[in-house]
Design a protein that fits this description.
Elements (H helix, E strand, L loop, with lengths): L13 E8 L2 E7 L7 H6 L6 E7 H17 L3 E7 L8 H13 L7 E6 L1 H13 L6 E5 L2 H7 L4 E6 L2 E8 L4 E4 L9 H18 L1 H8 L7 H18 L14 H10 L6 H18 L7 H11 L10 H8 L5 E2 L2 E9 L2 E8 H12 L2
Parallel strand pairs: 2-9, 3-4, 3-5, 5-6, 6-9
Antiparallel strand pairs: 1-2, 7-8, 10-11, 11-12
């Protein structure tokens, strides 16, 4: 396990072990250029076999040849499955097409899936791996910051349906996660900003040291360290609560309202931007309730703006509340909210579903 106090540069190789189950711990490896050695790394945890290499049409042009060549050199027999980039690809239609392709290629339980891309690729690929022949191994090679610090770790896999985001899925832990910080160099600014929304989320939840690093000079010069800190924060929560029934729900900070914003915008507002706005809304509500100090939301807004993230919401309470009712943290007539008590101190509070409307209204100032 990586030492929390050992700094990591973008050129160092770092491992964080995620003990999701006693019989299935796995490493998250963070190392510049590791994509070119993916086959060797995967062969250390899975015997060479047939492997579906899932990616999207953007990532295919950037990294797929390198990863595919590495798999072949390590003795794997890969075949590609390419989906269009974007949230719309996380659909039942694309899931069935992927499963059909895997079956046509005669994949068995002895084979594996390699998900090369951002959160959409990882979520879709992980869910396919969870349900194909009742479960096959899979490896995550995230290429976006959001996927590196959040989506690739912890075993949540899902697709979207018209009723809401991530409503159909399964918990299925990867066998290995390979994070190459060099992949971040090709990200458009808005996609990198999406990732920083999740990074800032970790800082607000439980990591004041990460918060200070983000506020410091040239935080983007320390991307491997930022990734490591986020992964270790998530590791702690996954180890305590793998199936999202307790402490892991802290990771929902900003997401209840954020998912509603995404949904109501028909996904024209990105996940990271929506989560950033959602964090601001719940923090302003916490201030009005006297839970946190009055300047906490302004402090959060300053940091979000620094990383080119929005802090104001274009929608009303009446527009967002119905969409928020689809949140997976709802249980009967109650919903669990992650509420900041301060930067680095977020706690879970269960409230009646009816109260959610007033929470949103207070945060929006409607």
């Amino acid at each position: 396990m990586s030492n929390r106090n050992t700094p990591a540069t973008s050129k160092s190789a770092v491992r964080v072990n995620v003990p999701a189950r006693p019989a299935h711990s796995y490493d998250v490896r963070i190392s510049a250029g590791i994509r070119a050695h993916a086959g060797e790394a995967i062969a250390a945890v899975h015997s060479p076999c047939r492997a579906v290499l899932l990616t999207d049409d953007t990532v295919e042009a950037l990294y797929t040849d390198t990863v595919e060549r590495s798999l072949i050199e390590a003795g794997f027999t890969p075949f590609r499955h390419v989906i269009p980039h974007g949230e719309a690809s996380k659909s039942a239609e694309n899931l069935l097409a992927l499963l059909q392709h895997m079956a046509e290629e005669h994949l068995t339980r002895a084979d594996c899936l390699v998900a090369l891309g951002g959160g959409v690729v990882g979520d879709l690929g992980g869910f396919a791996a969870a349900i194909y022949q009742r479960g096959i191994p899979f490896v995550q090679i995230p290429t976006t910051l959001l996927a590196m610090v959040d989506a690739s770790v912890g075993g949540k896999t899902a697709i979207d349906i018209p009723a809401g985001k991530n409503l159909v899925g399964a918990f299925h832990q990867p066998s290995l996660v390979l994070c190459d910080p060099e992949c971040l160099d090709t990200l458009p600014p808005e996609i990198l900003a999406d990732g920083f929304a999740e990074v800032i989320k970790y800082a607000v939840i439980r990591d004041r040291a990460l918060y200070e690093l983000l506020r410091g000079d040239a935080p983007r010069a320390h991307m491997a360290e930022i990734i490591r800190l986020c992964v270790e924060d998530k590791r702690v929560l996954v180890e305590e609560d793998e199936t999202d029934k307790g402490a892991r729900q802290l990771l929902n900070l900003g997401h209840t309202v954020g998912h509603a914003i995404e949904s109501f915008s028909n996904f024209t507002i990105s996940h990271g931007s929506a989560v950033a706005i959602g964090m601001v809304i719940i923090t302003r509500t916490a201030e009005l309730l006297g839970i946190c100090e009055e300047d906490t939301a302004d402090e959060l807004c300053d940091l979000l703006v620094r990383f080119n993230l929005p802090v104001s919401c274009p929608f009303t309470t009446e527009q967002l509340f119905p969409a928020a009712l689809s949140d997976k943290k709802r249980a009967g007539g109650f919903i669990t909210l992650a509420i900041p008590y301060g930067i680095g101190d977020t706690r879970l509070t269960t409230v009646p579903v009816d109260a959610l409307e007033s929470y949103i209204r207070a945060g929006l100032g409607d």
